[in-house]
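Thread title: Can someone regenerate the structure for this chain?

I was given the following input by a collaborator and told the matching structure tokens would be attached. They weren't. Posting the sequence so someone can regenerate them.
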Amino acid sequence: MAGIMEEIKARDLRLDSPELKRLPAPCPADHPRADLLRRKSLRVRDEDYGMDSAFGPAAPARIAAALTAFAPLHAWLRTALA
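Best answer:
Regenerated them for you:
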């Protein structure tokens, strides 16, 4: 997952901050997935696409291109949750 988190940041996507201040018990503080364990949800978004990008004749191509940015996260989720 560390690789996917770096990929998200490299693509200038926004990942919401973890909701929990501490890891849930009984997880040790140095758990390798600490960043994920402190989350109640996982939301990634691209702030560069506003409502104006969702309309007009060029919108389908812009939306398809934007969704490809999420492909690595989608692939990881499919593997991790299978």
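The radius of gyration is 16 Å.
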